[in-house]
């Protein structure tokens, strides 16, 4: 049975940092480890290795940790040094590698971690920098590889991960590595979502639905109304309408055989949706010789202002523009008008959405001089004169790949978008699209 040696009487130097036992003039009392007498005694606990090298030195007061504790490796290298007060961490705690390099260091106040804590690689290079405030992660946690190259930087607020950079949304359930996902939209309570998913087996893209429960989001299933090649689901702010785009035949129109996308809407009918109907006065039909994107409409979105935004070919350019229509009292829609420049630019402007408060437009665009590559996300403010000049979100949001299909959470706290920035590829080597999101409070928005 291992034993511990305690030195008496009550002569304790609380700031003690030397292993010398000569400070204690009374003979030691040796008791088995775990002996209940050690829970109430005051003195110095000592343990040595068989070689005679010190293994540990611990001060106790009435059986509680006090002062500085030390532990060593068998070769005499310091392994651990920590300050205690009244059985709680109070001061600096340090751990060391067998080679003598510092492994980690941090400061505690009444057992609560405070300030910056550090861990190190065996070569002495910082591996992790951890910020604490009132015992909780608060600030930017950083990691580094052994040569000092920064690896990650994650922000925490009051112990919770803050999404100040885009991350995958519900990976493995909503965002998968085997399907393309984009065009996300939520019901007003945030507990049901619709998205477009295109499998990599060549089957037509369809609209899927998922619900949130105690265990998180359910595996998406094909929505009942998605019977053809459908995309871009978008629930109205009041939850009473669901818009989407589809290549299904318009009533009274023969299918042209072209990839003709048009806008459709359904009304809330109890727990389900009404039969889809096309947006009267908005859709145009592709005909023989029609070149995309002419007469092609997609990404409908109803804003708080009651306007419905979508994109199609611009009047005076070969690219696409954002258009606006309005739902009328009889259920029909007003003649669409192209938004003036800004925000429409010289290239392809797509998929505009309006923030829940109605003051911010976010859309995807390509062909602008400040592009980071592929499509980028831009933002524009509502002003008394219309929408402000669009600004690129920059590298905080955009990658060198395609970043598109933005949407907001119902409360405006998060911005979602689709991107093919990940490493996944389909059988043909094409990048796979997934859904990313971040908190809107960290969007790099500049007001001009």
What are the salient characteristics of this protein?
single chain; 38 strands; Neuraminidase; mainly beta; 448 residues; Outer Surface Protein A, domain 3
Textual characterization of the structure:
By secondary structure, the protein is mostly beta strands. It folds into two domains: 3-161, Outer Surface Protein A, domain 3, CATH 3.90.930; 167-442, TolB, C-terminal domain (Neuraminidase), CATH 2.120.10. It has no helices and 38 strands. The protein has strands spanning 3-7, 29-32, 43-48, 54-61, 64-65, 67-72, 78-85, 88-96, 102-109, 112-120, 126-133, 136-137, 139-144, 150-157, 160-162, 167-168, 179-186, 192-199, 206-213, 216-217, 221-222, 230-235, 241-246, 262-269, 272-273, 277-278, 298-302, 307-313, 320-326, 337-338, 348-354, 360-366, 376-383, 386-387, 391-392, 403-408, 414-419, 434-439. The strands form six sheets. It has a 15-stranded antiparallel beta sheet that branches. Strands 17, 18, 19, 20 and 21 form a five-stranded antiparallel beta sheet that branches. It is elongated, with a radius of gyration of 32 Å.
């Amino acid at each position: 049975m291992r034993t511990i040696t305690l030195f008496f009487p009550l002569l304790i130097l609380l700031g003690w940092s030397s292993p010398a036992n000569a400070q204690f003039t009374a003979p030691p009392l040796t008791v088995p480890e775990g002996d209940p007498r050690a829970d109430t005694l005051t003195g110095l606990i000592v343990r040595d290795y068989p070689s005679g090298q010190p293994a540990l030195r611990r001060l106790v007061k009435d059986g509680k940790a006090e002062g500085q504790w030390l532990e060593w490796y068998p070769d005499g290298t310091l392994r651990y040094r920590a300050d205690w007060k009244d059985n709680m961490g109070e001061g600096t705690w340090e751990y060391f590698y067998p080679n003598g390099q510092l492994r980690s260091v941090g400061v505690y106040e009444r057992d609560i971690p405070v300030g910056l804590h550090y861990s190190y690689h065996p070569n002495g290079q910082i591996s992790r920098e951890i910020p604490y405030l009132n015992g909780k992660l608060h600030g930017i946690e950083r990691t580094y590889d052994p040569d000092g190259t920064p690896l990650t930087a994650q922000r925490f607020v009051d112990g919770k991960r803050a999404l100040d950079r885009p991350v995958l949304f519900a990976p493995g359930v909503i965002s998968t590595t085997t399907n393309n996902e984009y065009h996300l939209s939520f019901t007003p309570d945030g507990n049901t979502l619709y998205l477009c998913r295109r499998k990599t087996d060549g089957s037509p893209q369809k609209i899927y639905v998922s619900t949130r429960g105690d265990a998180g989001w359910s595996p998406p299933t094909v929505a009942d109304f998605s019977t053809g090649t459908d995309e871009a689901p978008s629930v109205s702010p009041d939850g009473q309408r669901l818009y989407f785009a589809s290549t299904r035949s318009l009533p009274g129109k023969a299918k042209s055989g072209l990839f003709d996308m048009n806008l459709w809407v359904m009304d809330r009918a109890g727990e389900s949706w009404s039969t889809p109907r096309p947006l009267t006065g908005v859709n145009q039909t592709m005909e023989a010789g029609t070149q995309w994107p002419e007469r092609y409409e997609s990404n409908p979105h109803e804003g708080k202002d009651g306007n419905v935004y979508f994109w199609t070919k611009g009047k005076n350019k070969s690219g696409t523009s954002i258009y606006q229509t309005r739902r009328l009292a009889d259920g029909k829609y007003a003649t669409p008008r192209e938004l003036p420049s800004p925000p429409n630019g010289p290239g392809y402007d797509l998929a505009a959405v309006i923030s829940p408060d109605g003051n911010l437009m976010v859309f995807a665009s390509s062909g602008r001089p400040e592009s980071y590559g592929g499509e980028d996300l831009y933002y524009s403010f509502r002003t008394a004169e219309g929408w402000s000049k669009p600004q690129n979100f920059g590298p905080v949001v955009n990658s060198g790949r395609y970043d598109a299909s933005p949407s907001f959470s119902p409360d405006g706290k998060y911005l979602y978008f689709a991107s093919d920035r990940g490493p996944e590829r389909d059988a043909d080597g094409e990048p796979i699209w997934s859904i990313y999101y971040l908190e809107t409070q960290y969007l790099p928005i500049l007001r001009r």
